[in-house]
Amino acid sequence: MYIYLFGTWEPDLSAFLRRRLHPGDTFVDVGANIGCMTALAGKLVGPRGTVVAIEPLPAVISELEEIVARNDLTNVRLVAAAASDRDHELPLYVGPSYNIGLTSTVARRGLHEQGRARAAPLGSLLTSQELATARVIKIDVEGAEDRVLAGILASVDALAADVELVVELSPRCWSDPQLRPIDVLRPFLERGFHVYLLPNDYAPWRYLWPRDVGAPQRLRDLAALERRVLRLDIVLSRRDADAL
């Protein structure tokens, strides 16, 4: 509905992708949903680039396939699976029809299990070429991002030096009630990544000014990562700057 009314979705993230992705780049969309960012990235990286859209929910995959076909995106590879920390099967807790994007592999109040999905570390879902050339990896998995990031650690050394991870953290949805953002992110900090806060507001009135976008700002006080907040949108980047 937001795209129909305002012509955009997550304008700050979209603007960041427009600045980062160029023809020939590789974009990985973990939790692609119906493909808003997949479609945008597909146009930005062009026919010489690659987009990998990872989505486990069959009903959503059908819509994703339609959007890819409608936009004539021949550079998109769809992966019907969930990214996780190991090879296994995960339950799918499906969101309501008015917001299927709430679907998660983590149990949440009001959501019911409707099937299971193959799950594997990101390094197992990508080819070695995709892993080595990924410019941006977007992770939006409704509470399973702690497991996705843990899985990435096994292949983090295979990633490009300039790779950036855009992650929507939902700490209060994590399976481990003691786990904090700093616990999940510390291994990346130890490998030279910095944390930047990405503006992201889902309130309808924010979309009245879709071009009023903000750049990710460096988070220097890491004490903010010790709290289990409801949501935290971040970018992990090895670039040492005040803003991206």
TrEMBL record:
InterPro entries: FkbM_mtfrase (IPR006342), SAM-dependent_MTase (IPR052514), SAM-dependent_MTases_sf (IPR029063). It comes from the Bacteria. Gene3D superfamilies: Vaccinia Virus protein VP39. Signal peptide: none annotated. Residues 29-171 form the Methyltransferase FkbM domain. Pfam families: Methyltransf_21. NCBIfam families: fkbM_fam (TIGR01444). This is Methyltransferase FkbM domain-containing protein. It comes from Mycobacterium kyorinense.
